[in-house]
Amino acid sequence: MNSVNKTRIQVLESLIKDESNRIANLSNASAWLNECLDTINWVGFYLLEDGELVLGPFQGRTACVRIKMGQGVCGTAAKEREILRVPDVHEFPGHIACDAASRSEIVVPLIKDDELIGVLDIDSPICDRFSEDDQQFLEAFAETLVTYL
C-alpha cells in the first residue's frame, strides 16, 4: 500500500479510536472516504439487521433503504463475504439502480470475529473507476474500521 493510503488509514483511526458509538464512527468513516476519493457519487454503509442489509451512514444522494442478501452488488458481496469490484453495474445481473448516474461500484464486506456486520459500498459515475490498488486500500480501511465497531 502506498504512503498516501497508509496516511488515510491513520487519519481514519484517529477519527474513530476514542469513540465507541458505531453510528458516529461509520458517519466519520463515510465522510472521510468521500474526502479521499475522487470521481465517486456515493459512499456509505449497509448494516446487517434481521437477515437483510439496512442503510447506514453515507455521503451522497438518497439511497435504497433495504437490500436482501444475495440481491444486487451489495447483497451478493454480503452473502458471498467477498469484495466485489464491478466495472459496469449495468452488466451486473440483478443490479439495483438506486442512482441512475452510477456506472461502477465496489463493495467490501465488513466482518468482525467471523461475523458479517454489513458492507462498505462505493459508487462512481465512471465505468471501471476502481482499481486493484483501490481495492487493497478499501480492504485495509474496512479491516481498520471493524476493529472499532
UniProtKB/TrEMBL annotation:
<comment type="similarity">
    <text>Belongs to the free Met sulfoxide reductase family.</text>
</comment>
<feature type="domain" description="GAF">
    <location>
        <begin position="21"/>
        <end position="147"/>
    </location>
</feature>
<dbReference type="InterPro" id="IPR003018">
    <property type="entry name" value="GAF"/>
</dbReference>
<dbReference type="Pfam" id="PF01590">
    <property type="entry name" value="GAF"/>
</dbReference>
<dbReference type="GO" id="GO:0033745">
    <property type="term" value="F:L-methionine-(R)-S-oxide reductase activity"/>
</dbReference>
<protein>
    <submittedName>
        <fullName>GAF domain-containing protein</fullName>
    </submittedName>
</protein>
<dbReference type="InterPro" id="IPR029016">
    <property type="entry name" value="GAF-like_dom_sf"/>
</dbReference>
<dbReference type="InterPro" id="IPR051330">
    <property type="entry name" value="Phosphatase_reg/MetRdx"/>
</dbReference>
<dbReference type="InterPro" id="IPR000614">
    <property type="entry name" value="FRMsr_CS"/>
</dbReference>
<dbReference type="GO" id="GO:0005829">
    <property type="term" value="C:cytosol"/>
</dbReference>
